[in-house]
Amino acid sequence: MDTNVESARILVVDDEGAIRYSVSKTLQRIGYEVEEAASGEEALEMMIKRDFEVVLTDIRMPGLTGVDLLKRIKDTAPDAIVILMTGYASLGTAVESLRLGAHDYLIKPSSSQDIRQSVARGVERARNLKRRRALLDAIRSNVFELTRADVEAINAVYEDEDPAPIETRYDTSIVDSVNSNMTLGPLTIYPGRYQISVGDQPIDLTPTEFDLLLYLAAHRGRVVSCHELVREVRGYAVDEAEAREVIRPHVSNLRRKLKQTGKDADLIVNVRGIGYRLSETGQ
Description:
Blueprint lengths: L8 E5 L3 H12 L4 E5 L2 H10 L4 E5 L7 H11 L4 E6 L4 H9 L4 E4 L4 H47 L14 H4 L5 E3 L2 E4 L4 E4 L2 E4 L2 H12 L5 E2 H9 L5 H21 L7 E4 L3 E4 L5
Parallel strand pairs: 1-2, 1-3, 3-4, 4-5
Antiparallel strand pairs: 6-7, 7-8, 8-9, 10-12, 11-12
Helix pairs in contact: 2-3, 5-7, 7-8, 7-9, 8-9
């Protein structure tokens, strides 16, 4: 079984049983775990019970249409990747679908190769989103713990002077602020935009550069090997020598972009022969 498809869960939604069967078999043959729904309403019920990385849905169905289903999925399961299928192609529908967040738009009857390639790209994107969310959660948790420790230390100093309960004395907005943009030393991280800033100077990053910075931030305090960075940021395993070649240009681009703002490019430190870490002076 291809390790890229192992354990990936796919939901195929179509009111025509023959099409559901054909698409499902195409995907099952290469190792995907596939389930079927005969309507948009049934698909939503199934998605309440379990997560799917990719949803392939017909557009024209009785009741909830594929476009309606796409909108509902984006509201309830924003990390799920949606691929729309239709036998009645139109430029307007395609543009609207992509605007609403569809990953791809397939014309029926689609070849097995087109279906497999579209789903493979969707699974990769879904897993990238999952890794990015985990990194953001790790950073938020780290910042929360640091903030809480600082608050408790300050409260301990004034505990004898202020009889009010400790929890009423600190400013919880400090902790709440990590739920949106995040401050990391001299950097402000904007999770939804692939963007950071140094002071008032924004820096646009590629998805890989953004995820690389997030991973180093989530694991600051230790050196991260290139092998680990490729595995966790890019989603595949290579040996350390090849991993260095994969990661080096992304780190170089990050340093160049930071240097353009006047920030010391050594925020990301190369520990020769081991990997990279986020500079303590930049925290």
